[in-house]
Amino acid sequence: MRKENQPKIDCSQENVGSDKQNLVAIVVMPNPASSGQKMDRVKHTGGCHCGAVRFEVWNSPDLHVFHCDCSICTKKQNHHFIVPKNQFSLLQGLDNLSTYTFNTHTAKHTFCRTCGVQSFYTPRSNSDGYGVAPHCLDPGTVQSETVEEFCGQKWEESMENHLTIKGMSKT
User: Fold this and answer.
1) Could you tell me if 43 and 54 are in contact, meaning their C-beta atoms sit under 8 angstroms apart?
2) Using one digit for the tens of pLDDT, what is the confidence trace for 8-64?
3) Could you tell me the domains of the chain?
4) Would the pLDDT of 145 be above 70?
5) What is the pLDDT of residues 118-127, one digit of tens each?
6) Which GO molecular function, any one, fits this protein according to its record (predicted)?
7) Which pTM value belongs to this model?
8) Coil, helix or strand at residue 50
9) For 89-110, b where at least 16 C-beta lie within 10 A, e where not — what string?
10) CB atoms within 10 A of CB 18
11) What share of the chain is helix, strand, coil (3-state, %, to 5)?
12) Could you please report the per-residue DSSP string of 109-121?
């Protein structure tokens, strides 16, 4: 979600320099386990397609998901929410993970060697945390997703102007 004072960075070729705002989509997903009380954090579990990689992550049931359009996120259709390292635990599959890096080699794109699914990774924006793919979470703990477009095509400018992303991996 773009804050009012946050400068807008438009990645589209036809809208360079325009005043159009980034779109934010909210997808509400029912949570059958909800007691009606607002929860600060819940334990989400998830993993890859074949089940070799399993993890748990503590985060809000209302996810703030980034949709980045950098070269690799576009190819992988990578959507992720960011958590501090101490809120993430790899339960199984360390030996089944492979890692791909490029450019600055800061981001560690981890994926299952068997099925190829990237269920989490270490993002360049938050190398002290993890980016978790909400579509790799097990059902039942997510109440909603707020999707924020992130202009990865202009990564440095986007990071410089973003007011909250750097703090999302802090406890």
Assistant:
1) no
2) 555 554 433 333 334 343 343 333 333 444 458 999 999 999 999 999 999 999 999
3) 42-169 (2.170.150.70)
4) yes
5) 999 998 888 9
6) metal ion binding
7) 0.73
8) coil
9) ebeebeeebeeeeeeeeebbbb
10) 10
11) 20, 35, 45
12) EEEETTT----EE
Q: Which residue type is seen at 98?
A: S
Q: 84 with 169: CB under 8 angstroms?
A: yes
147 membership: H or E segment, kind and range: strand 144-150
Q: Where are the beta strands (DSSP E) in 72-143?
A: 79-84, 88-92, 97-100, 109-112, 120-121, 129-132
End-to-end CA distance of the chain: give it in Å, rounded: 20
3-state secondary structure of 42: strand
Phi/psi class of residue 102: alpha, beta or left (left: φ > 0; alpha: ψ in -120 to 50)? beta
Given a cut of 50, whether residue 4 has pLDDT beyond it is no
Are the CB atoms for 147 and 67 separated by under 8 Å? yes
137 in helix, strand or coil?
Answer: strand
Residue that is written with structure tokens 């199984």 in the block: 92
Residue 62 makes CB contacts below 8 A (sequence gap 6+) with: 143, 144, 145, 146
The span from the CA of 145 to the CA of 153, in Å, is 23
